[in-house]
Design a protein that fits this description.
The protein is an alpha/beta fold. The protein has helices at 7-12, 33-40, 45-49, 52-66, 79-84, 105-109, 116-119, 121-134, 147-156, 164-172, 174-198, 215-232, 249-254, 268-275, 294-308, 327-339; strands at residues 71-72, 89-91, 95-97, 140-145, 202-207, 238-242, 259-262, 280-285, 313-317. The strands form two sheets. The protein has a seven-stranded parallel sheet with strand order 1-4-5-6-7-8-9. β2 (89-91) and β3 form a beta hairpin. The chain binds coproporphyrinogen I. Coproporphyrinogen I is lined by residues 26-30, 39, 45, 72, 74-78, 90, 95-96, 143, 159, 206, 208, 320. Substrate binds at residues 26-30, 76, 153, 208, 319. Catalyzes the decarboxylation of four acetate groups of uroporphyrinogen-III to yield coproporphyrinogen-III.
């Protein structure tokens, strides 16, 4: 189906566009009271994600209620470990928790490379329903965690400031680490390809825990596997968002992806110079700017847009929108981008 608003896809291809497209990371499941109403009608996040009609509904909400230029499918990066045989729970106010973790070779034997058609059918169904509901209004973004970030949760068992268990394995048992990363990578390739088949117009990989590795480990345990995914996904554009990975920006610029997500610590001017027009950039307003008074919010957004001017740019925050952000501030951010000349 022909998209009515394909600004995002055109800017990724490097075409000249009328205005900068805008969406927000984590726009679907965070700030809207309308989201919370749907969320409260079920037992919790996991039930919501596994009910395709509802997942599709909350995917579309930000398009109607905020006016963003893209929808992102409502799901989580942690559906992948579950599909591989490592289930998780979402603990209220604390986040994800895995009762079992991967510690040794016998734990690894219990895992499998998942078949998304069966193990993740509910996400694919939600994508098909969201596409139908969107009716070509805007592109739909599919996503997955980058292998390193998924590995970090599977070994650590939950969120962590240090992910010290996951990082210990890289030194104590690098062979096992590579085996697990390879299984995650193979699952992710199948999964994102299935998302594309179901209707996703582009794919974003979230490497949220990129910033905790030294450059030599990032190269060996993350970049390599992201490149395999980038090379495998030839059907649609791929965005790489590696939070805190300024130390590896040269390698990230070499990935066979189309778009690079930047967090708010990244130096736009320097990266633009290094990229020399090769990539589209996405980002990178500090999410805390959405707590600022309106005039400051507008000024900071315009400053960010000015820094990217003349490059291929998708306006976004530098990370997911914080859950207690006022939706009116989000609307002002979006309006400011749309009005910018
Ligand atoms: O717009 C959207 O909300 C789309 C859906 C989406 C996405 C893209 C969710 C729903 N999660 C994600 C990605 C995700 N999940 C990432 C990568 C992006 C990022 O860095 O923010 C990560 C690291 C997770 C893991 C995760 N899931 C956490 C972080 C835990 C930690 O280690 O600190 C948490 C709290 C979740 C739960 C979750 N995921 C999504 C929602 C709506 C929620 C809240 C659950 C609830 O409603 O109770």
């Amino acid at each position: 189906m022909q998209l009515k608003n394909d600004l995002l896809l055109r800017v990724i291809k490097g075409e000249k566009v009328e205005r900068t497209p805008v969406w927000l990371m984590r726009q679907a499941g965070r700030i809207l009271p309308e989201y919370r109403a749907v969320r409260n009608s079920v037992s919790g996040f996991i039930e919501l994600a596994k009910t395709p009609e509802l997942a599709a509904e909350v995917t579309i909400q930000p398009v109607d209620l905020l006016g963003v230029d893209a929808a992102i499918i409502f799901s989580d990066i942690l559906v992948v470990p579950e599909a591989m045989g490592l289930p998780y729970q979402m603990i209220e106010k604390r986040g994800p928790w895995f009762p079992e973790t991967i510690k040794n070779a016998s734990d690894l034997k219990k895992l499998r490379v998942a078949d998304p058609k069966t193990d993740l059918h509910y996400v694919l169904e939600a994508i098909r329903m969201a596409k139908k509901g969107l009716n070509g209004r805007v592109p739909l973004i599919g996503f997955a965690g980058a292998p390193w970030t998924i590995f970090a949760y599977m070994v650590e068992g939950s969120g962590s400031k240090t992910f010290s268990n996951a990082r210990a394995m890289l030194y104590q048992n690098p062979v096992l680490a590579h085996q697990l990363l390879e299984m995650i990578t193979q699952t992710t390739i199948r999964y994102v390809k299935a998302q594309v088949e179901a209707g996703a117009n582009l794919i974003q990989l979230f490497d949220s825990w990129a910033g905790i590795l030294p450059a030599y480990h990032y190269r060996e345990f993350s970049i390599r596997y992201m490149e395999k995914i980038c090379e495998a996904v030839t059907e649609v554009p791929v965005t790489i968002f590696a939070k805190g990975a300024y130390f590896a920006i040269n390698e990230i610029l070499e990935l066979s992806c189309d778009t690079i997500g930047l967090d708010w610590n990244m130096n736009i001017e320097e990266i633009r110079k290094q990229a020399d027009g090769r990539k589209t950039f996405q980002g990178n307003l500090d999410p805390a700017v959405l707590y600022a008074p309106d005039d400051v919010l507008v000024r900071q957004t315009q400053h960010m847009l000015t820094q990217f001017k003349g490059s291929r740019h998708i306006a976004n925050l530098g990370h997911g929108v914080y859950p207690d952000t006022n939706p009116e501030k989000v609307r002002l951010f979006i309006q400011t981008v749309k009005a910018f000349e």
